[in-house]
């Protein structure tokens, strides 16, 4: 973590033994170990919380982006509807209409002529 080697730890232990003495050294080592353990646990918990928040932010960002994409697709669908081409209605054309059946008891009908669509109607 900090790059402390075994020789450096041995040097710190010898200095602590000379300064504190053999009577207080075990208690000081125990107290130092407890404090170091607490610091490590607090740093690890902070690190995990930050990683969790970063992960949660990524998830929130991804969900937000997906929501925006979905709204954009919905807007495109509304603004540019792709309507299928109109299906022709199955109605017979004017030339295909069956001729009316004449009633045997009815008077003969006068012949009717319909002008061609490209010619103007004639005056009587």
From TrEMBL:
Main location: membrane
InterPro entries on file: TatA/B/E (IPR003369), TatB (IPR018448)
Subcellular location: Cell membrane; Membrane
Membrane topology: Single-pass membrane protein
Recorded coiled-coil stretches: none
Annotated signal sequence range: none
Positions of region (Disordered): 76-124
Keywords: Cell membrane, Membrane, Protein transport, Translocation, Transmembrane, Transmembrane helix, Transport
Pfam families, sorted: TatA_B_E
Keyword presence, GTP-binding: no
Ranges of biased composition (kind: Low complexity): 97-116
Annotated family: Belongs to the TatB family.
Role: Part of the twin-arginine translocation (Tat) system that transports large folded proteins containing a characteristic twin-arginine motif in their signal peptide across membranes. Together with TatC, TatB is part of a receptor directly interacting with Tat signal peptides. TatB may form an oligomeric binding site that transiently accommodates folded Tat precursor proteins before their translocation.
Subunit description: The Tat system comprises two distinct complexes: a TatABC complex, containing multiple copies of TatA, TatB and TatC subunits, and a separate TatA complex, containing only TatA subunits. Substrates initially bind to the TatABC complex, which probably triggers association of the separate TatA complex to form the active translocon.
PANTHER family noted in UniProt: SEC-INDEPENDENT PROTEIN TRANSLOCASE PROTEIN TATA, CHLOROPLASTIC (PTHR33162)
Protein name: Sec-independent protein translocase protein TatB
Organism: Pseudomonas machongensis
Gene: tatB
């Amino acid at each position: 973590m900090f790059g402390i080697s075994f020789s450096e730890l041995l040097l710190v232990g010898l200095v602590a033994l000379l300064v504190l003495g053999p009577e207080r050294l075990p208690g000081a080592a125990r107290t130092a170990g407890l404090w170091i353990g607490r610091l490590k646990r607090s740093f690890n918990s902070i690190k995990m919380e930050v990683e969790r928040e970063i992960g949660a932010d990524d998830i929130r960002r991804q969900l937000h982006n997906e929501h925006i994409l979905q709204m954009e697709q919905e807007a495109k669908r509304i603004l540019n509807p792709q309507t299928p081409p109109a299906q022709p209605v199955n109605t017979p054309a004017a030339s295909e209409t069956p001729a009316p059946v004449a009633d045997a008891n009815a008077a003969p009908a006068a012949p009717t002529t319909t002008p061609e669509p490209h010619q103007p109607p004639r005056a009587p």
